[in-house]
Amino acid sequence: MRHKKGIKKRKGSALVFIVFVFLITSILAMSVLFVFDNNFLQSRSQEHRIEAYYIAYSGIEMAYSALIANSEAKLKELTRATAPVSQHTQTGLVIGDGKVDLVAKLATDPNFDGWVIITAKATLDKNGFSYTRSLLFDPSDPTNPSKRVWKDN
Fold first, then answer.
1. Are 63 and 19 in contact (CB under 8 A)?
2. Is 53 exposed, middle or buried (0-12, 13-18, 19+ CB in 10 A)?
3. CA-CA distance, 124 to 100, in Å (whole number)?
4. Beta bridge partners of residue 148, listed in sequence order
5. Maximum Cα–Cα distance across the chain
6. What are residue 2's phi and psi, to 5 degrees?
């Protein structure tokens, strides 16, 4: 008899236990989904940053090659003593899934007096994410890799 009375007193306890377990499981599942979503968004942002970085890098390499091509005629326009060209620009150059704007001019940084700076601003078409990168080099020895300085702006 005692046994049956004890069961009747705990009649709703199984339901409370199931609801409690369901609540804990739901909280854990939501936490895992939150972490997964944040990780995915961070991964996509990193992917866009890297893509824009390499578009800017490619733009600078193309501009650098154009400056030193043809006996360095364009480079000499920037660095000549009398009536130098203030800058060479190219905007909207399509590279991959983005566009790049390029500017080549004499550096204004006193640490790189007389050097040329090429700045590229890459913008991805799909989301407008942008990245800016610069290359400084000594025009007196443009093919010497030790006289090049890369900067991320």
1. no
2. middle
3. 9
4. 137
5. 113
6. -60, -35
- Integer-rounded Cα Rg, in Å, for the chain is 31
Residues of the chain with pLDDT under 70: 1-10
Residues 137, 149 contacting (CB under 8 angstroms): yes
Q: Per-residue DSSP letters for the chain?
A: -HHHHHHHHTTTHHHHHHHHHHHHHHHHHHHHHHHHHHHHHHHHHHHHHHHHHHHHHHHHHHHHHHHHHHHHHHHHHHH-SSS--SEEEEEEEEETTEEEEEEEEE---GGGTT-EEEEEEEEETTT--EEEEEEEE-TTSTT-GGGEEEEE-
pLDDT tens, position by position, 30-64: 999 999 999 999 999 999 999 999 999 999 999 99
Structure tokens at 68: 């030193």
Kindly state the tokens that stand for 139. Answer: 């025009």
